[in-house]
Write a structure and sequence with these properties.
Blueprint lengths: L1 E6 L2 H17 L4 E6 L1 H5 L3 E5 L8 H6 L1 H18 L3 E5 L2 H13 L4 E4 L11 H8 L2 E4 L2 H9 L4 E3 L3 H7 L8 H7 L7 E5 L4 H13 L8 E6 L5 H8 L5 E5 L2 H6 L1 E7 L2 H8 L4 E5 L5 H10 L7 H6 L5 E4 L5 H12 L3 H17 L4 H15 L3
Parallel strand pairs: 1-2, 1-4, 2-3, 4-5, 5-6, 6-7, 8-9, 8-11, 9-10, 11-12, 12-13
Helix pairs in contact: 1-18, 4-5, 5-6, 10-11
Length: 379
Amino acid sequence: MKYYIIAGEPSGDLHASNLMKALKAEDKEAQFRYWGGDLMAHEGGELVRHYRDTAVMGVWDVLTHLGKINNNFNTCKADLLAHRPDVLILVDYAGFNLPIAKFAKQNGILTFYYIVPKTWASKEGRNKQLKLYVDKLFTILPFETQYFASKGIDVHYCGNPVMDAIEKRDNKDEQFADFCKRNGLDNRPKVALLAGSRKSELKYNLPVMLRAVEKFPDYQFVIAGAPSFTIADYEPYLAGRTDVKIVFMQTYQLVSNARAAIVTSGTATLETAVLNCPQVVVYLMWGGAFSDFVAHRFIKSKFISLVNLILGREVVKELFQKAYTFDKLTSELTTLLAESNERKQMLSDYAELRQMLGGAGCSERAAKAMLNELKKNNL
């Protein structure tokens, strides 16, 4: 079977690579062509574009890179027609993938969507596109499965790939002292800083995180370096300071060894919960009253963190937009670092969350479901 997969960010690269591995186990004749990253490349096949060359985020970024965006669209369309896969598998990355889904539908290419756009939070108009252009959705969150089914969209729930990624992580059973020694860290308890994987997230969220360092001298603050960044991306914010360390390609190891974490809203909030690390969730798009208006006007969901969305209640504190201040951040972090009732309750709620998500095996379940769907289409 010929598979064409499009993932546009580090998380998509991770989950798509695990899906590729599972597809290879089920389909010995599997051939892959894809847009993604190094993890997908490790599974073999042909890499068309690396996500480093396709990622464009934010209105200004889009406006200043229209030529690049159009070139990527044209390249992808031509490549799809030239290679005519048995199935196109889209992974998140809605701004690019939804127009490609439309093109694929117009040209008779069967299309699956794995890790679906979060239309339940914003841009509900995209549901019409999903229904028209995508043959099958493979969802990773229980509540979104019900949501898409209520919209009349063909959907299948596979579990969550975060469970797979965490289960298969390197140095899974490493002790705290060994983790510190391997990364040149001191023996103080750690606070993990997960500032996001986009430059705009660093710009607006990391500075307040760093201001909190001086208030907690008994803890070592460590930044989880995003796979798409280098040390140069963080240097403007660190400005020569040596009291904050950075580790790359070890987010899971860092979080599992941290006393608490400050997490920019996104998939990382769920990963932090599965790794059983207390967290405060933050998110600032940009400053000012207008940004607050835009944020609350277009974000429809009650919560911004996946932990709270899945459990349907406030489990982790969310500091969103104007609520994200130094005083509120340090107050919440103080509570989580202590042996407080709030910390104990959060860890108890995490156990409920993990039970809802089920165990590892999402990638394998998704691969089997996709192959069953392909058989229905006589492929």
